[in-house]
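Fold Annotation — chain and its backbone

Fields — amino acid sequence, structure tokens

___
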Amino acid sequence: MMASSAAGRAQRLRSLVLPGILALGALAVLVALGSWQLNRLAWKQALIAQVEARAAAEPVPLAPASAWTAMSAETDDYRKVRLTGTFRHNREAYLYHVAGDTRTADRSRPQGQGWFVMTPMDLAGGGTVIVNRGFVPTERRDPASRAAGQVGGTVTVDGLVRFPEIRTIFAASDDAARRLFYTRDIAAMAQAMGLTGAVAPFSVDADARPVPGGLPVGGETRLVFANRHFEYALTWFGLALTLIGVFAAFAVQKLRGA
């Protein structure tokens, strides 16, 4: 009888080996995902702090064209710069944008669908930079509807350096012939504008300084980033604890012969 009981206990223990291996593998994955989210949390917090510091700093003169190839998103994205030159309004392009945030709507700022007006500026020191002059609603995209804002002559712009975005699978296709873009693709914009010579591989988002006629509205750079990595980490670690509890209950039932 004792031998039979021992044999049964051994059989039940063997029956836990495969489920135990699978549970251990799943636990390792869940813990790894939770740890990865904590690493992402640290990265995101550092990024937010860096962007806030750069955006709040005093503007510095934009580096000369000869130094543009040495600039990168890691070292220069969101850096506040000052540039002086003349706009080529006849070459402007448009970047689709949905302005405002319905969760914290500020009615003093633009709301709804529209376009960023992307205008090449020939710098006084040489080279061309595409400047995001700001937002216009869809019905005011036509330059003729906002002629007062097409300022001529030499102008000075303060703004934030922005490097190209990575195109996602959800982005609509650009219409280069009409200069309508749905991703901040500076090289494609420059080509559609017919720009030649030294063209910056980045754009500059103009600040909120008002322009004649009120359009475009600058200062629309989004400086708030979603940061839910801590929540995601808690979710993965919570699932890991749940898995431990479920397997423990399963193992106890098996060992009891249930």
